[in-house]
Structure formats: structure tokens, C-alpha cells
Amino acid sequence: MSPVQYQIRVDHTLRDPHTIQYAMADEKETYVFHDSKLYVTYDKGTTLLEVPVPYKDIAGTNNALYNELLPAHGYIVTKAFTAFICYDDDGSYLLYSKDAGKNWNKSRILPTSYRGETLYLSKTENSCYITIATDRSLGHEYYSTYKSTDLKTWSYLNGEALQEKKNVSFVSDGTAYIGAGTDQNQNPLVYYTNDDGKTYTTLTLPAYETEYVNNKIKPFILMEYAYRKKGKTYIVVGQGNDGDYMRNNIRYKGLYESDDGITFRFKKEIDDSPKLAG
């Protein structure tokens, strides 16, 4: 059993409070927790490299608990660039490596330690982008997007497309896809920008319709993230917090595909949810 496939079980009595362990995706480049330490691997778990970060900074929560399931889009693990968004008493910071985990550097982002429910971290050709919660009021989290070209200083992006948006995926310098809800027909809406959010075009993804419990439904309504692979652009659309479309106990998401990055078609249902260790 690879360390990457399953979190190593520990004596829960040694931890206060109890921390849930998750089975990690079977990926070549990923992270894993073991005995309150964070590790990365670039070879599917054959070699584990410890990340020099305090457990509280990377796995802590706002309510003094711990969560070893990192926000799905709040970290990057590749040989060329590995990075994690962390928090300490002085605020948020990016811990990163450019040489496959051999050396690590720390870049201060904001002087606020509030941890939002999600994070978005994107590395493009010449820039790094972070979408992060900056405050919470009356049950609502406020998000902002920041950019760095030197991994030392961070600039706030005030473009209209980015205001109060938290699902922000940059796929190249200046180019991003931003979740924007749905239209009246439940077609997912996505803002597309190629100038860091200063201007944008609204893309309408065709709603996917399927039968569920003897009813026709359109389950996929909220863009979660976008990426490029082999010349194509992909957008993953989730069900939102209230979605209950499941088959075989799997809560599916929708994968959309585009050849030109503008016109998207539904490709298939996917499952990228975390699994509990066991």
C-alpha cells in the first residue's frame, strides 16, 4: 500500500482533537500527512520529502481543529513548482519550492490569518495567482485575488471580473476562468478574461440534463476549476452545496471540454471527491 494511496493510520488517542485521515488520490505528484508532518512525493510515494512547515500553519482551522484534506485548488505539487498556502500569527504566506522539494522559500501574502472555506492557487508562465478569503461578516466570506511575478510582493487585482469571486482559475498569464453562477435555464456561466480580470466575456456552458429519481434534472451548476491539457481547455462544474445527484454513493461533477477555450461541450461525469482512509 503506497503512502500516497492511503494516509497512514495513527493512534487517535494521541491527538486532541481527532483528525480525520483521507485516502489520497493515486497520483504521481501529490502530498501526504504522516504523524502531523506534511510530505510531498514526485514518484507516486516511492520517495517522500518532508515539507518544513508547522502542522498548525498548514492543517489548522479557524476553530482550533485540524484538517489534513487541503483545499483542492490551494496547493501545487510538480517538480518545477511546489507550493502551499499557509497561515501563522502574522497572516497568510506561500511556502514554495522550485527544485522538487530540495529548498523552500516563504513569501508573505496578507497580514490576516482568516482561513476561508476554499483557496485557489495558479502558476502560469511568469506569474503566480492566489484567490484567498480576506474577511468574514454575517456568515459571508469575502475573497480577493492577488498576483506576483517575483514571489516576493503581491498585487491586488481589482478587475471587475474578479470582484467577490472565489472560483478563479488562471491557465496562462492574464487568462482566467471564473465561476459566475447560472442563467435562468440553469446553464453554468463562466467569466473569461485575458487581461487579469480588467475586462471579461461571459461564457455559457450547455447544461447537462439527466434522469434522477424519475425526474429530469440539471445537476451541474457551479464552475469549480479550469485547466489546460494537450492543447485543450477543461472546466469542471460541480453541484453546489445543495446538490444531491449521486449514483453508487458517488457525488459526480461534470467535465466540459473546449478546443478554442471559448466554446465548451459537455464531455462526461467525473468523480474527484476525496476518500476516507481505511
Structure summary:
With 278 residues, this protein is mostly beta strands.
Helices and strands in order:
Blueprint: E1 22-23, E2 30-34, E3 37-41, E4 49-50, H1 55-59, E5 75-77, E6 82-88, E7 91-97, E8 105-110, E9 120-123, E10 128-137, E11 140-148, E12 155-156, E13 168-172, E14 175-182, E15 188-193, E16 201-204, E17 210-212, E18 215-217, E19 222-229, E20 232-238, E21 246-247, E22 250-251, E23 253-258, E24 265-270, E25 275-276
Antiparallel strand pairs: 1-25, 2-3, 3-4, 5-6, 6-7, 7-8, 9-10, 10-11, 11-12, 13-14, 14-15, 15-16, 17-18, 19-20, 20-23, 21-22, 23-24
Please explain how this structure is put together.
The protein has 278 residues and is mainly β. It folds into two domains: 1-156, no CATH class; 172-278, no CATH class. It has one helix at residues 55-59; strands at residues 22-23, 30-34, 37-41, 49-50, 75-77, 82-88, 91-97, 105-110, 120-123, 128-137, 140-148, 155-156, 168-172, 175-182, 188-193, 201-204, 210-212, 215-217, 222-229, 232-238, 246-247, 250-251, 253-258, 265-270, 275-276. The strands form eight sheets. Strands 5-6-7-8 form a four-stranded antiparallel sheet. Strands 9-10-11-12 form a four-stranded antiparallel sheet, with no helix packed on it. It has a four-stranded antiparallel sheet with strand order 13-14-15-16, with no helix packed on it.
Which consecutive residue ranges, at least 5 long each, have pLDDT under 50? 1-15
Estimated structural class:
mainly beta
Write down the overall geometry. globular
Number of domains: 2
Taking the sheet with the most strands, its summary is: 4 strands, antiparallel
Summed up, the helix count is 1
Strand order of the largest sheet: 5-6-7-8
* Rg computed from alpha carbons, rounded to a whole number of angstroms: 19 Å
Distance between the termini: 11 Å
Q: Please estimate the helix content.
A: under 10%
**Relative strand content:** 35-45%
Question: What is the N-to-C order of secondary-structure elements (H for helix, E for strand)?
Answer: EEEEHEEEEEEEEEEEEEEEEEEEEE
Q: What is the mean pLDDT?
A: 90
Number of strands: 25
